[in-house]
Amino acid sequence: MGRIIILSALAIACLISCGAPKKIENKNTITSPVKYKNVEDLLKKMTLDEKIGQMNQYNGFWNVTGPSPKDGDAAKKYENLRSGLVGSMLNVRGVEQVRKVQEIAVNETRLGIPLIFGFDVIHGYQTISPIPLAESASWDMEAIKLSAKMAAKEAAASGLNWTFAPMVDISRDARWGRVMEGAGEDPYLGSAIAAARVKGFQGDDLSDPSTLAACAKHFAGYGFAEGGRDYNTSVISGEILHNVVLPPFKACVDAGVSTFMNGFNEMNGVPVTGHIKLQREILKGLWGYEGMIVSDWGSIGEMKAHGFAADDKEAGLKAVLAGSDMDMESYIYVKHLKTLVEEGKVDMALIDDAARRILNLKQELGLFEDPFKYCDLNREAQVIGSDELKMAARDMARKSVVLLKNENAGLPIKDKKSIAVIGPHVSEKNSPLGSWRIAGKDNTAISVEEGLTKYKDVDWSFLQGVQLTTAPTNFVFETKINEDDRTGIDEAVAKAKEVDQVIMVLGEHGFQSGEARSRTSLDLPGLQQELLEAVHAVNPNIVLIVMSGRPLDLSWADENIPTIVQAWHLGTESGNALAEIIMGEYNPSGKLPMSFPRSVGQMPLYYNYKNTGRPSQHPDPNLVFWSHYIDEENSALYPFGHGESYTSFEYSNFTVSQNNTGYLASVTVSNTGQMDGEEVTQLYIRDLAASINRPVQELKGFEKTMLKSGESKTITFSLTDKELGFYDNEGNYHVEDGEFDIMVGGSSAKVLKKTIERATTSLKP
Ligand code: BGC
User: Fold this and answer.
1) Among 131, 252, 205, which residue's Cα sits nearest to residue 517?
2) Residues 120, 184: one domain?
3) 120: Cβ below 6 Å to ligand 1?
4) Which helix (H) or strand (E) holds 353?
5) Over the stretch 727-752, which tens digit does the pLDDT of each residue have?
6) Domain assignment of residue 747, given as a range
7) 422 shares a domain with 333
8) Nearest to residue 218, comparing CAs of 189, 259, 260, 251?
9) pTM score
């Protein structure tokens, strides 16, 4: 009773005194000492040191994401900041912090040029959306755009104005930990997603304080690291570079991306940070890109370790000549560029060009008018963690889930029964946030347990079976899942015997993928396979939910488990989204953006491979000398574009006709099942004989359609020279005559096919 009275008194007091949320007074001060009309006018007022200063980016004085050179201590950084020798900071976030640092730049330096504040807003800021690979499985460009828009809104409310995203590196190797951060293996899908993300982050107007400048990274070839080893060597032919690696970057330029980042890797013998052909010739030359290029963390200095520069000074020289405009955390530009200019090794025009690109971005962001426009404490308090952001994250999470198989309609759960939910990820609140969520708070994801317990009429029991030994973090190389403690397995098996159904939640910890998280095995880590088999031995009625940052080898599960759901790392709303899918409130519609292997030995694995002279689908299986493994099939276990639904779809009336711009491919898609659902119809081509061998399939169109049970729709794709051509090794675009296979379907491996004969030769310059 006493407690109730106290609580009521508090509530009344609050009603009287709180009323509307209190307005916090912003203490933004603008006393910029020098006035200038525009960027050109400003450039005229700047000294060489000040121009070079714009090309220098420091990490905040905490939150280090990589090794720092010894002299990069906080005191030196503050000193350089005050002398106008810094153009941008990364990892300074939160309105209070950003304002403090911006005040130094604006009020204490000679020209008062504001800083830009960059941060890795990769999949959400504090409200975490699914990892980018998961979002890509939605094939839903509007949803992906909205997700980036929400991330921008939250991050910008925290004082930031620049995200180092999207990562648009195509990768064909699931051993590479950074596949979680990209859009998968296909350049066409990857390009569409790249453009959607750029537009989502940047909006229509960069000066809108709820948008961020985006950054296309890592230019280029980082996803082709040999053996899937992060930071490693890439060897990429001209044809693959132009047809596979570059298209998503070009899509970013076309979408108006403000910035680019180069990378850590070398490509064909030259570190990309010092790559003249990539940066100066292709990006800034051929594509006419007018924005700026930032180096990756310390990548200018790392050109010494590559064996491409003898010392820091030479590394700086090679980077600036190649077109790297801003030095992230190498401290080399600020130290050596002036001497390089004075010695005549670097033309002043290059420095002016780099400084101009950086200052133009500041102008577009509106920072010259108001350097503190992102520093609004009220906005920060209202926006961060808001319900609007959570709802958007939940919707994106639902859309990202891929139903890999669903024999005997194991999902959704129909009858109210007893269900044991088993696995180390069942109650996890940290791991589902995934990798690259630096501002995400630990243990804030809704767990599967929390999501499911809301459904009261099922008799749930939740068991870990095996535990995660440690809670890995972003910066500690501690990503092992329990490998020796079997104490929970017996209890899980005993429970599994008693119940009608088992749901197992297994997979990788959120920090087992991401930067520097390459793996040689694609198995379920630790004791999870053992747990799965032990439970299966007593109750095979299992729904398997797989959480991972990359495709795993699910061969055993595919043979033995009737229902498998690929749930990636779905972010803050993970458990809520999964529960809705498990209980049938949402019908999954995701399709794989990367092939899932039968064995790690198949890596690299991708659907758009070349046929070879001795193709794997040889008509005589007894012949030995053709391109295959002697112990495994070549094909993916679950191919690119695959994904099932609680309903079923059928394809019919496939026609291809000619029109004055090329061809029209039409197909009727029918929902033949009992539930409403969405289907992603995919269009593929194959150029059967060309001057450069073409892949057996190339995605050239897709459309996601909602169909009510029993409903049919006709979908039409247009095939013009843009879809039918390809680049040669020198980057020239060709559209050639001859036969083309045109394929449509709901997966790369399940298509209807027609062959056309193209007869009008055209060769584009
Ligand atoms: C990563 C970049 C990232 C940068 C800043 C590097 O280690 O490769 O993608 O943007 O750190 O955090």
Assistant:
1) 131
2) yes
3) yes
4) helix 348-365
5) 999 999 999 999 999 999 999 999 99
6) 649-762
7) no
8) 260
9) 0.95
